[in-house]
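Why do we care about 3D structure at all? Because function follows from shape, and shape follows, mostly, from sequence. That is the central idea of this module. The next example makes it concrete: a single protein chain, its amino acid sequence, and then its structure expressed as tokens.
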Amino acid sequence: MSESNKVLIRRLFDDCLNGHDAVLYPEFYADVVYHAPAVGELRNELHRQFLVSVFTAFPDGHWNVEDQIAEDDKVVTRWTFIGTQTGTFMGLIPSGKQWSGFGICIDRIVDGKIVEEWEEWDTLGLMQQLSVLGTEATVWDLVAP
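And the structure:
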């Protein structure tokens, strides 16, 4: 089961994410709950809309799977991303700047579909590279009153 789950996630990255193809969403997700500190908890259609917003904001965006570990019903994927922000993303106006970032996601898979996903990504690096925060900013600048 672990190997087939890794194949599913690899296909998600290759076909859906790198293909910027939200039509494929139901092939990979079923009644999903997505957790990410930057956006909170998103379910089903809201999660799909979030992915579409990434595709729209970064039309040249490309994910690279760096590592994968699978056990039982979970797959952990460490990924990198590079893309140029030409559209609005999470309220940030288009900057024309490139974001080169990284993240880790943990997907729980049931009956060949992702039902839960936890994701952490380099939000500080995103804001620094898109000039929302200066390059000297630290994580504390995000939480300071």
